[in-house]
Design brief:
Blueprint lengths: L1 H23 L12 E5 L2 E5 L1 H21 L1
Length: 71
């Protein structure tokens, strides 16, 4: 059970760090990357953050790979 506890602590610390970065505005660029689609017409707004979600997917996959590799 010790490795599971270590993984939970590392994941928790990672969430705290990301939360602090979001709080201070370090991710203000997220959702405004080239490739993120915004369409506004009259009362209709459509937002599809394709590039941002691709970047998030790569980061989460890399994080999961690191956790599986070293723990």
């Amino acid at each position: 059970m010790k490795p599971v506890g270590v993984m939970l602590v590392v994941a928790g610390l990672g969430l705290v760090v990301v939360g602090l970065l979001v709080w201070v505005g370090a991710f203000s660029w997220f959702g405004r990357l080239p490739g993120d689609i915004r369409v506004e017409s009259g009362n209709t707004r459509v937002f599809a953050p394709l590039t941002s979600m691709l970047l998030l997917s790569v980061a989460l996959s890399l994080g999961a790979w690191v956790l599986r590799r070293f723990f």
